[in-house]
Amino acid sequence: MKIHQTEGDGDILAFLTGQEEVETVVSLLIEQARALGRTGMKRHLRILPMYAGLPSFEQMKVFERVSRSVRKVIVATNVAETSITISGVVYVIDCGFMKLRAYNPRTAIECLVVVPVSQASANQRAGRGGRSRSGKCYRLYTEEAFDKLPQSTVPEMQRSNLAPVILQLKALGIDNVLRFHFMSPPPAQSMVQALELLYALGGLDKDCRLTEPLGMRIAEFPLNPMFAKMLLESGNFGCSQEILSIAAMMQIQNIFVVPPNQKSQAIRAHRKFAVEEGDHLTMLNVYEAFIKHNKNSQWCQEHFLNYKGLVRAATVREQLKKLLVKFQVPKKSSEGDPDPVLRCIVSGFFANAARFHSTGAYRTIRDDHELHIHPASVLYAEKPPRWVIYNEVIQTSKYYMRDVTAIESAWLLELAPHFYQQGTHLSLKAKRAKVQDQ
């Protein structure tokens, strides 16, 4: 707001870390802009968010021309760092942080973490302003802090879950992946964890060779191997139709749209789809309702749903369906029975299980790591289920599980006896796989 009141013409681009932070700041700025407008200030502000999961029609607003009496303020994640160029930006505000996907081999958790930007990213952000004329970059950190930043961002290969990479290398005939010459060599522990997971999923045998047919089939899916295993098992559980929809929906970010000025209406609309079992079946309800209403964009708008995202989910579902047909997975529906669907999800995501602890948090079974249900989950405000599985973890002030579903602990013993063993009457213990890459 100080820039708006004291600086000359030109739009403002502010870099923040993630969607939630962007939406919070947008709401605050809208209120401040209204208050400023009541003082009689001639120039008005148009506050716009920009992040990867934003519906495309909302993203396009940042490129629209405005009158000379209006200044655009674009509040963005690092998607605006390299992916797009917005003309008219003269002033850049850099918070100095970014959100990255990172894998911790010690805890076997892959999560989104907030980390300081690199010097290369900071310079890239500064370069977003002043394309048409000289501009200014306001860095919310000192020059000394800038000098201490890493020169460049850690390569993705060194901070990712390597299971998909290893699968592809194995499918290409590269047996000894531990001796493979990566351009950015990943940590050895990450390699071992990935091999253990693939072995637990049945994709690799004890000699770390692709199993046939399961391992070869998992490698053909353009998905996390846990999703692939879940899909391939869906015929055995009699719910391939439902699992196809769930898997497709889980590939799309931000299905639920929450406009800052219509938050309460959006939350009420979203509750219509919520079920007590958790987020996976809630997403299934959303997709089935979308199909029932003939993929209608107006219906999506009325229910505060991301139309483009749902259309994309339908496309992904068709692609996955072709693979299931290729592998002769039976086309079956559970006919509204949730148990087969939940058990099938566990068959793929058993490694992502957590139990409720007396402290009020959840603990992972494998490494006893503390997790919390994300506020966006339908389970957040409900009585905590004793056992849950989750799709991914994000790290802010805490480690939060996203896409969470309640399960029975007996399912873990039944569906993954090679991974879990009975502990006390209150817990399970994870088994450690011993595999040897040839």
TrEMBL record:
It is an enzyme of class 3 (hydrolase). InterPro entries: DEAD-box_helicase_OB_fold, HA2_WH, Helicase-assoc_dom, Helicase_C-like, P-loop_NTPase. The keyword ATP-binding applies. One of its GO terms (cellular component) is catalytic step 2 spliceosome. Transmembrane segments: none annotated. SMART domains: HA2, HELICc. Residues 1-173 form the Helicase C-terminal domain. It comes from Myotis myotis. One of its GO terms (molecular function) is ATP binding. Belongs to the DEAD box helicase family. DEAH subfamily. Its EC number is 3.6.4.13. Pfam families: HA2_C, Helicase_C, OB_NTP_bind, WHD_HA2. This is RNA helicase. It catalyses: ATP + H2O = ADP + phosphate + H(+). Keywords: ATP-binding, Helicase, Hydrolase, Nucleotide-binding. CDD domains: SF2_C_RHA.
